[in-house]
Design a protein that fits this description.
This protein has eight helices and two strands. By secondary structure, the chain is mostly helical. A hairpin with a 6-residue loop joins β1 and β2. It is globular. About 45% of the residues are buried.
Length: about 210
């Protein structure tokens, strides 16, 4: 089993055809909602978050128990800034990762985008709700950053478990365990970012 498989990006050939098709169908729906009435002033922000999401794939966290590493996902950040537009940045970022870094897959782009994009959209929806509940900016960021990353890892785990072209139970379990540090780091990172943005530019945070 190649150690490069310890990632939340499903590779070509890893998934059965029905799941690949379902992934593209799900992505089509996500993009339809995301592109609905996009305003011109939103485009630069979408571009910046696409770049940040792409760069996140180059920030690796070495694992002490395995001779490999995992990378940041940053879907929580994309979600709390872009809201329902998040799938646009995620899809562009994943496509660039495949083209430039050979990370992920072409046929599985739809499923990968759903796995990472759905938790991002949920994080964006939850942000104003958590604000109304009176949670501090740091606490909001920690919950949504860790939650979005954990959501992506869980969806990846379930996809491999139930939709893999082979028996990927061992791999799926390994990915789940390997990303525990990522979930913690993503929560702390987004907590700091949200706390900062709330002070200097609160209008950047998702309200749509």
């Amino acid at each position: 089993m190649p150690l490069s498989l310890f990632a939340v990006h499903l590779s070509d050939g890893a998934m059965s055809l029905p799941w690949v098709v379902a992934g593209w169908a799900g992505l089509s729906l996500l993009l339809l909602v995301a592109m609905w009435r996009v305003r011109e002033e939103e485009i630069p922000r979408i571009g910046v978050l696409s770049a940040a999401f792409f760069v996140g794939s180059s920030i690796h966290i070495p694992l002490a128990v395995l001779p490999t590493s995992v990378h940041l996902i940053l879907n929580g950040l994309v979600g709390v800034v872009l809201g329902r537009r998040a799938p646009l940045a995620v899809t562009v970022g994943l496509f660039l990762q495949f083209l430039l870094l050979a990370h992920g897959g072409q046929t599985t782009l739809g499923l990968n985008s759903c796995i990472i994009g759905i938790p991002a959209v949920i994080a964006g929806m939850c942000y104003p709700l958590l604000k109304k509940l009176g949670l501090s900016p740091f606490a909001r960021g920690v919950l949504l950053g860790a939650g979005a990353a954990a959501g992506a890892v869980t969806l990846n785990f379930l996809s491999l478990l139930f939709g893999g072209s082979e028996d990927w139970r061992l791999l799926a379990s390994g990915i789940l365990l390997a990303h525990i540090p990522v979930v913690i780091v993503e929560g702390l990172l987004l907590g700091v970012i949200v706390q900062y943005l709330e002070k200097v530019k609160p209008e950047m945070l998702a309200t749509n």
